Amino acid sequence: MEFYEAIRRRSSVREFTDEAIPEETLRRIIAAAYQAPANDHFRDWHFIAVTDKTVMREVLEGVPKNLTVKDVDQMTFISDPVQKESYRFAVPKQYSMLMNAAAVIIPLMKKKVDVLHPADLSHLNCFASVWCSIENLWLAATAEGCGCNLRIPCGSEEETARQATGFPEEYMIPCFIGIGRPAADAVRTKQLVPDLEKQLHWQKF
Ligand SMILES: Cc1cc2nc3c(=O)[nH]c(=O)nc-3n(C[C@H](O)[C@H](O)[C@H](O)COP(=O)(O)O)c2cc1C
What we know:
By secondary structure, the protein is α+β, with helices and mostly antiparallel strands.
């Protein structure tokens, strides 16, 4: 797929077919993650690809299963109607979008600094770098005809996934990634389209 076409087609996919993704395809997609820029040259990220439904269920045990649009309506930080519509669709799917994916990919980054209490911006470099790898992965998945979604683990979700997969204490999960073949009628939520003419500045703001 042409590069800009992959960029245009990438979107969050939360509904999948039952088709498995071949291991070779997952390998290519994860190899693309390692082509991302990294602050310290190490790229010492790990990725756990969970394709076994029993392990997946254990990994996702902490993810809320019963969220509804009513929960969204109580979220006071949502101000825009398009944003709200997108949350009303996505929030109730937090568990199913991962559990019904062909694989859940768990990126892992080494906790070299306390990213939750950074002393300055450079302390977040390792976190920024792993997110570059996640975007590479997502675009590669799109080019392979797959769809992805993301969930940020909250509360005990990370610890539950650690217990289920046995990754060491020194690693943290930036997000869970659900990946699979998009269902024919998979919803692509409407997005606000930034106005380049207003947001792109030449020379001065
Ligand atoms: C840092 C980050 C955190 C996100 N967290 C979640 C999440 O917890 N659950 C979810 O369903 N989507 C999550 N998303 C996906 C966004 O909702 C989605 O990318 C956004 O609405 C734009 O839609 P699109 O991906 O279809 O273009 C996250 C995306 C990013 C970049």
